[in-house]
Amino acid sequence: MVKTLLTALTTSLLLLSFTAFSAPKSELWAYWNSSNEANLQNVSHQSWQAFLDKYLVVDGDNTLIRYVRVSQNDKQQLKSYLSELASIDPRTLNKAEQYAYWVNLYNAITVELILDNYPVKSITKLGGLFSFGPWGDDVITITGQTLTLNDIEHRILRPIWNDPRTHYAVNCASLGCPNLQSQAFTSANTEALLERAANTFINSKKGVDINGDKATLSSIYDWFAKDFEAQGGIIAHMAKYNPKLTEFDGTIDYDYNWDLNKK
């Protein structure tokens, strides 16, 4: 009886944690909302690019990471890259450089978390006892401010740029997630990468799978529906990249695969 009650309590807490994760609000952390548009500095993401070139592979609709093959030296290089980013005050950069900085930081931290805990079946297994994943954990300190992955995505990227394509840029190390891009983001390639990522995801079955009068959409569109309102809603946004959705008038449900994006 006691074991049953504990199991039920644990399940309930995990469900609450999942609910908190599934629809975090876009709430600006004003501290980070400044820039120097006159600054022409380009932050180097070559170390991150070298990691992607070596360990990212394409497999059908997915890009996967060869976590098991990452050498100790390359793990250290990844940590050094994150330390280099942490030594920069991103507020001194122009907005285009900032966007690339935050996206690459988010994605590199996520990969590091998996490597530090590998083997693991899903990123949702990380974090505290009653946490659904590590998104609320402190992961890096920049200019004396301690940040979580949730801070980077939901308090910086989403509210400052108000671009729903950000959901295709940040990667949660899961098969259901929009793919980790094979190129590091830079101020020069961000627009092209965002368009490519949106187009690829929306035209894959993990973005939308249409069977007759039923469409199964990624749960991203359920969790963050508000982010797409300015573009006329989810379907209007998706139809820009997948014209088949323009005339769709059936039922919609949502799904997401939390299995690790491993090769």
Low-confidence stretches: 1-21
| Mean residue pLDDT | 92
Which sequence of SSEs, written as H and E, runs from N to C?
HHEEHHEEHHHEEHHE
Task: Measure the end-to-end span.
Answer: 41 Å
Query: Strand content of the residues, in percent?
Result: 5-15%
State the total count of DSSP E strands: 7
- Specify the oligomeric state: single chain
Rg from Cα: 19 Å
Shape: globular
By helix and strand content, what is the structural category?
alpha+beta
Tally of contiguous helical segments? 9
Going across the biggest sheet, name each strand in turn. Answer: 5-6-7
Biggest sheet features: 3 strands, mixed
Helix content class? 40-55%
Describe the structure.
With 263 residues, the chain is α+β, with helices and mostly antiparallel strands. The protein has a domain at 28-206. 41% of the residues lie in helices and 12% in strands. The strands form three sheets. A three-stranded mixed β-sheet has the order 5-6-7. A two-stranded antiparallel ribbon has the order 1-2. Helix 3 (72-86) runs antiparallel to helix 4 (95-117) and helix 4 (95-117) runs antiparallel to helix 5. It is globular and about 50 Å long. The N and C termini lie far apart (41 Å). Residues 1-21 have low confidence and may be disordered. It holds the Pfam family DUF547. It comes from Vibrio thalassae. Residues 91-202 form the DUF547 domain. This is DUF547 domain-containing protein.
